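Anyone up for a design puzzle?
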């Protein structure tokens, strides 16, 4: 049973609120009434109720000042403020200071019931999160994994978040690890300006910004950009109504963020809807296919260079689309003659994790084409052992295949060939398998949180790790830990 304190300078109003609904059937016990802000603060300090319903206009401390004191003392109490004054600035100020909700007098029974039920849901979520710091992210992952159609407004409502605004915009930001120590401070900053923050990775924050009109959205973005000077990369998703699917909004923000990571000179990237086709690409792709069919290596490399030039500056989902079209041609014309040298299809985020830049992507493709024209290569056992020993000792580090190739003075394609020959799988799949095995061990034998394990095994993005783990194990990390 959660405890609630009723605060109003008119005793009959406080009494009326305490009797307006059946608090106990809603999971709350009224622990008392206070008739001014100072008395209310003393009772809150003494009894530490989970919830307070308070008037704004009161002698001594008013409701806004009471809310400030609760925040200053870091008291774990949710506050619902009420006032007979319908000016919008009261609601804005209350919500910016962290009030759970704002109600207008005379308070209607249905209105109070709806708010109290959302509050109970929010408190239950807080309780689960206190026992399991990964719970909020697990719930979000399960929600996205289930159907992908849940509106962002419903997600916010389910978590006890109420918006006065009809639209939302998602923004992703990556920070240096040292800057993540004040993530709670960033949360307070955004909560003070109509928004919410979710930590979605070891150094990644996802901001949900709420607004009325496009002009207001631009103001929010200016504020965020101005307050995210420490962020190394920022990806701005697409604005949408609260009825729009959360999964699509997260996807857009992720595309923008990974695009920012892919181009070193683009710290902030805004998502753009992908065009049906990019001028010139289809023609060059046709020329590439003809040259592959005729085994004209020089012409193949020329076409790849043209495609690289046309892809420069493209959003990463578009680059991935071009990349996968090329991979499809490789499978079509070479998989029968040299299946051991196949290159994998990659999503936009896998592409960003596998290659540090656009140049690296096309260098890999070029070296693959050059290798196709060569006879079977000899495998040096000593060289293979050295490479595998290095990979096995470094798999938890953020080491790309290109870095390994450079270390051992090998071409990307030849190194890929060696690893496939030795392990029967690709470099990325081999690394993933090693990391998943270590994660399973840590989940069973350590008290580390899933967030900490994600970092320990070499990943930065919580959702990416969850997705990989579930794909390989059949369960999310949290569920695997419980079996």
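Challenge accepted. My sequence:
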């Amino acid at each position: 049973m959660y405890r609630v304190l009723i605060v109003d300078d008119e005793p009959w109003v406080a009494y009326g609120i305490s009797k307006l609904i059946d608090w106990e059937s809603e999971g709350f016990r009224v622990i008392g009434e206070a008739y001014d802000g100072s008395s209310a603060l003393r009772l809150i300090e003494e009894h530490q109720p989970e919830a307070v319903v308070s008037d704004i206009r009161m002698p001594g401390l008013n409701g806004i000042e009471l809310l400030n004191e609760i925040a200053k003392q870091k008291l774990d109490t949710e506050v619902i403020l009420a006032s007979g004054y319908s000016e919008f600035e009261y609601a804005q100020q209350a919500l910016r200071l962290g009030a759970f909700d704002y109600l207008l007098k005379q308070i209607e029974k249905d209105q109070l019931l709806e708010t109290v039920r959302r509050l109970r849901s929010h408190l239950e979520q807080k309780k689960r999160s206190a026992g399991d710091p990964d719970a909020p992210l697990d719930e979000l992952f399960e929600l996205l994994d289930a159907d992908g159609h849940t509106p962002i407004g419903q997600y916010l409502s389910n978590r006890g978040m109420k918006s006065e605004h009809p639209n939302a915009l998602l923004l992703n930001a990556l920070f240096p690890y040292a800057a993540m120590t004040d993530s709670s401070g960033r949360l307070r900053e955004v909560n003070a300006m109509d928004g919410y923050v979710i930590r979605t990775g070891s150094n990644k924050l996802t901001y949900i910004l709420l607004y009325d009109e496009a002009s207001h959205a631009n103001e929010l973005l200016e504020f965020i950009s101005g307050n995210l000077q420490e962020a190394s990369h920022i990806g701005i998703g697409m604005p949408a109504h609260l009825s729009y699917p959360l999964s699509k909004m997260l996807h857009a923000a992720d595309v923008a963020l990974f695009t920012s990571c892919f181009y070193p000179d683009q710290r902030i990237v805004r998502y753009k809807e992908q065009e049906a086709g990019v001028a010139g690409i289809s023609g060059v792709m046709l020329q590439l296919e003809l040259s592959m069919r005729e085994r004209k290596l020089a012409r193949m490399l020329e076409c790849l260079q043209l495609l690289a030039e046309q892809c420069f500056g493209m959003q990463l989902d578009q680059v991935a689309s071009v990349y996968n079209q090329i991979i499809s041609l490789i499978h079509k014309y070479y998989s029968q003659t040299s299946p051991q040298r196949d290159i994998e299809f990659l999503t936009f985020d896998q592409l960003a994790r596998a290659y540090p830049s656009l140049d690296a992507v096309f260098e890999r493709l070029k070296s693959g084409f050059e290798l196709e024209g060569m006879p079977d290569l000899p495998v040096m056992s000593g060289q293979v052992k050295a490479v595998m020993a290095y990979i096995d000792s470094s798999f938890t580090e953020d080491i790309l295949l290109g870095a390994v190739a450079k270390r051992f003075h090998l071409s990307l394609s030849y190194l890929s060939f060696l690893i496939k020959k030795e392990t029967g799988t690709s470099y990325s799949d081999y690394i993933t398998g090693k990391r998943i095995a270590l994660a399973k061990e840590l989940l069973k034998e350590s008290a580390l949180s899933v967030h900490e394990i994600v970092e320990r095994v070499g990943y930065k993005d919580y959702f990416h790790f969850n997705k990989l783990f579930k794909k390989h194990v059949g369960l999310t990390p949290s569920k695997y830990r419980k079996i």
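A detail worth pointing out: The radius of gyration is 28 Å.
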